[in-house]
Design brief:
This protein is mainly α and 123 residues long. The chain has six helices and three strands; from the N terminus they run ααβαββααα.
């Protein structure tokens, strides 16, 4: 699949995931920008993130925006080439992993830590 096709498939999956959220969470989720990149930037890897990372949340968690002097806007990054590699070229596995990865990163926006995410099946 081409990067454009992977991005379109991932974006479609994220849209479906947002529609499945409880109504009170949908506006919050839609307020977090989702960016689709092929792979993580080399600077991110230099910071210690694994090269095969599937997604990343950056910025301030919901409700914490004013706790920082210069808060960065929240965003979710999905790395479509890494997701595709993880899925071993299987479209259904790719969609499922996009879904889980998006919800995992959205959970960080909601302030959930790794234990909270595991308890919700989003690890």
């Amino acid at each position: 699949m081409t990067p454009a096709e992977l991005t379109a498939l991932a974006a479609s999956t994220v849209g479906a995931a947002q529609r499945q959220l409880p109504p009170e969470l949908r506006p919050l989720a839609r307020g977090v920008a989702v960016h689709y990149e092929a792979k993580p930037h080399p600077d991110l890897i230099a910071e210690g993130w694994p090269a095969d990372i599937l997604g990343l949340f950056t910025g301030s968690a919901h409700g914490q925006e004013l706790a920082h002097d210069n808060p960065a806007p929240p965003q979710i990054l999905l790395y479509v080439d890494n997701l595709w590699d993880f899925a071993e070229g299987d479209v259904e596995i790719f969609r499922e992993e996009c879904h889980v990865t998006y919800l995992h990163e959205l959970g960080h926006y909601f302030g959930w830590n790794e234990d909270d995410l595991t308890a919700r099946g989003l690890d």
